[in-house]
# Entry
Amino acid sequence: MSDFVICYDISHPRRLARLYRYLLKHAVPLQYSVFLFNGDDRQLECCMQKAIELIDEKEDDLRVYPLPSRGLKARIGQPALPEGIQWSGLPTTW
# Structure
């Protein structure tokens, strides 16, 4: 299992809402247009195939960045999940 950052810039509000709702089912929202996806390459490919169908490739921007499996993973500021809920894939505070 690997971690990936999925981010997007969608120009049309309807496509934006559809992609956001879709990614909520498959990844953890970190910010408005940034998600953390945890899975293998096959799972990511499946997720991205559907996501690509929801965007207009001429107007929108959808990107996926792999996170290194080793190294520092930390967050500063507000947690992504509500108080009391922890997910081991998310970094803790410093």
In short: The longest strand covers residues 2-9. The domain at 2-66 is CATH 3.30.70.240 (Alpha-Beta Plaits). The CA atoms of residues 40 and 65 lie 13 Å apart. The first helix runs from residue 13 to 24.
